[in-house]
Amino acid sequence: MSTSGCFIRPTIGTTSSSPFPNRSLNLKSFNLRACFIEYPLASKIIVRNLSYSTSESCLKEQFSNFGEIAEVKLIKDGNTKKSKGYAFVQYTNQEDAMSALETMDDKRLDGRVILVELAKPMKGRQLGYPKTSGPPPESTIPAQSESESEY
C-alpha cells in the first residue's frame, strides 16, 4: 500500500514487490515527451473510470511497476481544470504496456474499478482551420432515370 493517497487493491498470491525486480526506475524518463513517432503505437494505454481525485503522480507510481514510463497525461476539463476520469500512460516499449494492460485492467484504484485498454489514434482530428478541397468529386453511382422512379 502507498502512503501518497493512491491505493490499489492487492491481489491474492502476489507480493508487495515489483513484478519486474531487475528493472530500475529511471526518474529522467518522466521528463520525456512521448509521441507516436518516438515509441511504438502499442506502447500507449488509456486508463478509464478513474476517480476524480486520482493524480498523475499516483498513476506514475502504480504503472511504473511494469516498466519505464515516458509520459502520463491525466485529461482535465479546459475550463474547470478538473479531471475527466481518464488518462494516457505512454511506456518506452510495447511489452511493458501490454504487461500493465493485462495486470491493471479491472483492478481497484482509489476506490474505483479501472479499465485499461490500448490507446487508439484519433482519426480525422484536425488542428486549426479545415482545409478547403474544392468541389465534391463526381458520384460513381449511376443516376436514376425518370422511368425507374415512376414505379
From TrEMBL:
Gene Ontology biological process: mRNA splicing, via spliceosome
GO CC aspect terms: U1 snRNP; U2-type prespliceosome
RRM domain segment(s): 43-121
Region spans: Disordered: 125-151
Keywords linked to the UniProt accession: Nucleus, RNA-binding
Molecular function, one GO term: U1 snRNA binding
Compositionally biased residues, Polar residues: 141-151
Pfam families for this protein: RRM_1 (PF00076)
Lineage top rank: taxon: Eukaryota
Cellular location(s): Nucleus
Gene3D superfamilies membership: 3.30.70.330
Protein name, UniProt field: RRM domain-containing protein
